[in-house]
Amino acid sequence: MKLQSATEMIAPARAVTKTATYTAAQYNTYTRDNFTAIWVGTTAGDLDYYTGATAKARLAIGVSGSYLASNGSVPSWVKFYRYMGFQLNTDIALNAGDDAVRFRIPSVLHNWNIISVYGSRKSGTGILTIQLRNVTDAVDVLSTKMTIDSGETDTATAAVAPVIDTTKDDVANGDQFAIDVDVAGTNTLYAWIEIGFAQP
After folding, report:
1. This prediction's pTM
2. Low-confidence residues of the chain, pLDDT below 50?
């Protein structure tokens, strides 16, 4: 039996005839659109991700300090959040007055913003009323103060929610802050304040 050479085993390429055409529409479909689907980015730092078996989408670069997260379907950029919590009193009734707690802003929160304020208490009557004050800048942070309604235990159920003044919500390394008890209520025990910060 005669063995075929390697050259004889390779089928010759078919020549393209002079009548073959490659239209603009075919170019757009098979070349341009395919490459567009592969490279969806437009800006340095962009990421691409699959939205289906053969489809991609662009995720623009996130803001400085954000991190990549997933909601179970698509990726997204998420800001860092940090919280500080302060115990105002324990089993002795809370007293009204400024500087129930004094604290400083650490360097890791420099140029961040205050984005939430909440309070709770174990028990008490009367409307507990709290203000957050930037001592360094000599301004009150809350345009509407935190309140806990009589007989209730949390600001989340208050008739009037606290409002953060967004012109006074920024913090800087070393800023001194104070929690002021404007109204202590009656026999308020185990009052607790939580402050949330986020990157701008």
Report:
1. 0.70
2. 1-14
